[in-house]
Hints:
The structure is a homodimer.
Chain A: H1 6-12, H2 14-18, H3 42-50, E1 53-57, E2 62-64, E3 72-78, E4 81-86, E5 92-98, E6 103-104, E7 115-118, E8 122-128, H4 129-138, H5 140-166, H6 169-186, E9 193-195, H7 200-207, H8 211-223, E10 228-229, E11 234-236, H9 240-247
Antiparallel strand pairs in A: 1-8, 2-7, 3-6, 3-8, 4-5, 4-7, 9-11, 10-11
The structure holds a DNA duplex.
Amino acid sequence: MKAFDFDRASKLMPALSRGKVDASPCAACSVRGLTICAPLDSQEQGQMAAIMNSVELQAGDPLFDEGEVAGNVYNITSGTVRVYKLLPDGRRQVTGFLFAGDFLGIAKQDIYAFSAEAVTPCLLCRFPRHKLEDLMLRLPKIEQRLLSIASNELAAAQEQMLLLGRKTAREKIASFLLMLAMRARKRGQVEDPIAVSMSRTDIGDYLGLTTETVSRTFTQLKQRGIIQLLANHKVSLAKREVLEEIAGGF
Amino acid sequence: MKAFDFDRASKLMPALSRGKVDASPCAACSVRGLTICAPLDSQEQGQMAAIMNSVELQAGDPLFDEGEVAGNVYNITSGTVRVYKLLPDGRRQVTGFLFAGDFLGIAKQDIYAFSAEAVTPCLLCRFPRHKLEDLMLRLPKIEQRLLSIASNELAAAQEQMLLLGRKTAREKIASFLLMLAMRARKRGQVEDPIAVSMSRTDIGDYLGLTTETVSRTFTQLKQRGIIQLLANHKVSLAKREVLEEIAGGF
DNA sequence: CAGCGTCGTTGATCCACGTCAAAGCGATGC
DNA sequence: GCATCGCTTTGACGTGGATCAACGACGCTG
């Protein structure tokens, strides 16, 4: 398990060393309503901003690795992050994709239970855990929000277990596309031609399939006119009802 | 989705209607150290006990169904509970087994995201959610404990996704047996001849396999001398190191 | 202690998906 | 404009686990 390379990270994330943030970085935040900051008033947001640093990542950059001391939590402002676990022989399970507005870093004890990497270029807000915990004592709303986020993630994890354990390849792909559409809608983005920002390999590792099966299943759905594969990794859900029927109870 | 039948439940759970609890039911509780009550002093435990009801279940009894209004949370005192989700055509994914000391009922919004049933006869402590939420405002330790429980469950869920998406049948069974042993140890029970309280079907639905495959894999491990199948659903982990090697990074 | 129902085991066969291999197909750089 | 590289697609083939079908082994009940 490779440790987080802070020197490399500093070069890759210029904002990280700058330290000082803008006067009111949160005022302009487009995902404020979605995330952990949602229940806070502007004075309280200021307290959050005071312990926050901005982080910028290139596609492929690691955020942290499984087993590492969990020093920070993150809020994604833009971009896509993948979260995954590895088996010793290299088999990988992507346990989630995170988008703008999503929160990252809830950890049992003080050790990350998974690794995280940028899928696309990303902007994030980083909070040192111990400072956030101090702040939680004064602002219990944060802790409540965190519990609510954890509950939602738990429900999503159970849905994903149902998918991994009991759905066919076609049902998995259909569920995946609908999940992307649903989450794009939640953060106010267009949800018909959805942007599929991750590779076939990432999708396969998320759904418990190989890239070949993912590719074949996309082709099959395309040939039946259920989806359209467009340029720039966009996918149109031509027959959403059919997709919903295939997904089966997502 | 069948709603929870309260009348039937009342008959099945005599303790439920009794309402009044013993003077200090928690003092004698054998799982106090493991569960949500762990961080509370005896006066605070009294406050918990005041909003608590005892519940007794027979094997197979439902606790609640997915989609139902999440009115209660539970603490398991003894027995085994299964938590699961269904697809419309009846395919089932067991998302977890719960044992003495485990907490049940963290729900996103106010709707259960899964169903729960007794696998064996069970004793539980039941807390009405709204009363527990009131108590949380006065005892933030409870909320912290709940967040900690949720974090642990999240880590376990990710481990299970790795298992479901990327492990072979043999690796799944090995991981499952080691998980049972580990959890038996945590609650202070014997962990070598482990008690396997659930059926092959339950195990299959937990691991994303069929009963036949579960049975064949058990037989295979037995023939290789790695485990022994004893009477009364007990299994001895004859060669635990081999099992750990097979499980691969659990 | 015989009869019955549930659960577990075993065998034969099938198929959805994995594996292996090679050919498109954009992007990027020279 | 053409070589290169990574990603995706497509094809041929193999296989792990599912399915279908008996059969055995308990535990329960009368």
